[in-house]
Amino acid sequence: MSSRLFALSFDAQEPERLARFWAGLLNLEAAGAPHDETADEAYDGVLLLSGNDAGYRLGFRSSPARKTDQNRLHFDLTSSSPDDQRELVARALDLGGRHCDVGQGPDASHVVLADPEGNEFCVIEPGNSFLAGCGRIGALACDGSRAVGYFWSEALGWPLVWDQDEETAVQSPDGGTKITWGGPPLMPDPGRDLHLDLTPDDDQEAEVERLVALGAKRLDVARGGDGAVLLADPDGNTFRVLARRRR
Question: What is the pTM for the complete model shown?
Answer without folding.
Answer: 0.93
